[in-house]
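Sample intake sheet
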Amino acid sequence: MQYAKEVVLAILQYTKSAADFAGAKEDSMCRVCEEEYNTSPHPIGRCSALVGKRRKQLGKYLLVPSELRQEHWSSLLKFAKTCERF
């Protein structure tokens, strides 16, 4: 199961890298909420524009990195897909 979580996190990091390659910077603001910097864990754990979806699918309004690591990989992947952000 730990391997699966690492795979999901690697996919998220890859999509972030692809965005960086396309011109988005790590220090740029999130294009969805425009409130925080667009870091790798931001869309899944902190983006205010995704609060409702996050609460509905993951059970919390906000998730810190340690909580993200505890989530099942399939839940994170499902959430990422429904956000249409990745």
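Comment: The two ends are 22 Å apart (CA to CA). Residues 41 and 65 are 7 Å apart (CA to CA).
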